[in-house]
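Researcher: I'm preparing a figure for a lab meeting and need a structural model of a single chain. I don't have an experimental structure, so a prediction will have to do for now. The sequence is pasted below. Please return the structure as tokens so I can convert it later.
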Amino acid sequence: MASGPFPRLQAHSQGDSVVFHSPRKRSHRRVTALCFVAASLAGLAAQAQAQDSLSQASIEAQQTQAALQRRIDSADDATREALERLRRATLQADRLESYNAELAPVVADQARRIEAQQQALAQISTTREALPGEMREMVEQLRGMIEADMPFLRQERLARVDTLEQMLASDETSQAEKLQKIFSVWRTELDYGRQMDQWSGPLTGERAPDAKAGSDYARQVDYLRVGRTGFYYVTPDGHAGGVWKVASQRWEPLDRGQIDEVRRGIRIARDQAAPALLALPASISVVPGQSPTTADDKTAAGTSRADAPQADVPAPEQEQESAS
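Model: Understood. Here is the structure written out token by token.
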């Protein structure tokens, strides 16, 4: 069949019937199929591209989240380190505050001492000029105190004062050493007031008119001294004894019971008996409102021996001292 403006039909049998196909229609179907395939491919490409974009976005989001987590972890570490530093700083501040509180009184005391030393340094020239006269006065006061005191170990004590006076007149001893020796003798005298002592020696000193006559002064007697409160003696045979009265500067006789108390005190001083209270008359009597000297003058002049005040003389800590 000749071609013309109309397409040529093609026939083929399909069973008992004959089907005619137009070539134009088949081309149209091919184009449609191709378009569909192209569209499918385009859709698949777009879907693949979208999936790639989504995957990339997911990766980027994960990376961002990981970076953010690292920043958070880093911030947590920094925060923990900062908190640890703060804790250590707080503990150190507490320790320093406690240390400063303990040192505050020490520093204040050192400041007072420094101020006192500075004042002493400012007055050192005046002190140096006044020191020799002060030491001389201290030695003179020491001699006067010994001469007015109870006459125990008087020669030995006055010998110390004589040594001090010779030392003051010598230029071989420094001022500091002189002052130290003067203080040492003063401390010895002060210690006598806290000691209980006993020794044997000849009886010296004036006796009261009513004291028994005899050969007491020709014999050795046993002395007992209880601080500066009482000074006593008894004869070795125990028949006589006396108490020294500071106001009258003489011995007053003791009765039999008081002599026994003195002998007991001597045993205590020798560590032969336990410490105990001694019922003995005191060498110095104190009356309220009067000086010791005035009180003793009144006792010696206006009362008898039986009316003299009695005192429980304690036996203090003793220190043995012997004298010939």
